[in-house]
């Protein structure tokens, strides 16, 4: 009997304590919490951008800010002295780099392009000769990577033309990708400081 009274008494005391705390209010609270946000190398970021292991990886490197870049110009000549793609030709380069989902949920991948002739360059996934799909809306599961190559179409293009200057890779979490969202809206939705949306072209559009 004494043990029961003790347990009951403890329960009442706890409820009483909660009631007393609940009836009060605070005039101010200052709480310090630890927050760590690091800027990672492109290959280690949540949206991972990694050079491939294929021979075509020589067209890809990282700049001094550790950003991945594709270089097919005279600043990155091949061992044989090549400085760019042929005019009046179709050229393709399988497996240049990988886009990897290193986040926490599946994401859809899109590519935006700008330059003098952005429509002449297309980024694709797979093998150009045996079957490929244009990179535009593929869903990457967590830890999954998309192998990316590109092809160029240069009919009636003069030598020394800069086909492409910049690329934006867009990853949208599947939970945030609504039925109302259209790929074309990415041109308006993506923040591009000091750049006009009409300068950019959606890959595969």
Shape field: globular
Instruction: Tell me the number of helical segments per DSSP (H or I, 4 or more residues long).
Output: 2
Distance, first to last CA: 80 Å
| DSSP summary, beta strand count | 11
The run of helices and strands is HEEEEEEEEEEHE
Rg over CA atoms, rounded to whole Å, is: 27 Å
Explained architecture:
With 205 residues, the chain is mainly beta. It has one domain. Helix content is 12%, strand content 32%. The strands form 3 sheets. Strands 1-4-9-6-7 form a 5-stranded antiparallel sheet, with no helix packed on it. Strands 5, 8, 10 and 11 form a 4-stranded antiparallel sheet that branches.
Gist of the model:
By secondary structure, this protein is mostly beta strands.
Supply database-style keywords.
globular, 205 residues, disordered N terminus, 4-stranded antiparallel β-sheet, mainly beta, 32% strand, 5-stranded antiparallel β-sheet
List the helices and strands and how they pair.
Layout: H1 2-22, E1 47-51, E2 60-62, E3 68-70, E4 90-101, E5 107-114, E6 121-127, E7 131-134, E8 138-140, E9 145-153, E10 166-173, H2 186-189, E11 200-202
Antiparallel strand pairs: 1-4, 2-3, 4-9, 5-8, 5-10, 5-11, 6-7, 6-9
């Amino acid at each position: 009997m004494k043990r029961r009274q003790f347990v009951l008494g403890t329960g009442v005391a706890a409820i009483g304590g909660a009631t007393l705390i609940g009836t009060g209010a605070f005039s101010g609270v200052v709480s310090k919490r630890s927050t760590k946000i690091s800027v990672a190398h492109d290959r280690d970021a949540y949206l991972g951008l990694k050079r491939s292991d294929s021979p075509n990886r020589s067209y890809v490197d990282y700049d001094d800010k550790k950003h991945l870049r594709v270089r097919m110009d005279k600043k990155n000549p091949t061992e044989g002295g090549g400085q760019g793609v042929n005019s009046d030709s179709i050229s393709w380069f399988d497996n240049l780099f990988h886009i990897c989902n290193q986040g926490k949920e599946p994401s859809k991948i899109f590519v935006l392009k700008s330059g003098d002739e952005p429509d002449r360059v297309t980024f694709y996934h797979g093998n150009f000769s045996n079957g490929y799909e244009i990179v535009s809306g593929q869903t990457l599961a967590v830890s999954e990577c998309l192998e990316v190559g590109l092809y160029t179409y240069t009919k009636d293009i003069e030598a020394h033309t800069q086909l492409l200057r910049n690329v934006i890779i867009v990853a949208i979490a599947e939970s945030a990708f609504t039925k109302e969202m259209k790929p074309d809206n990415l041109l308006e939705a993506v923040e591009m400081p000091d750049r006009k949306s009409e300068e950019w072209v959606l890959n595969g559009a």
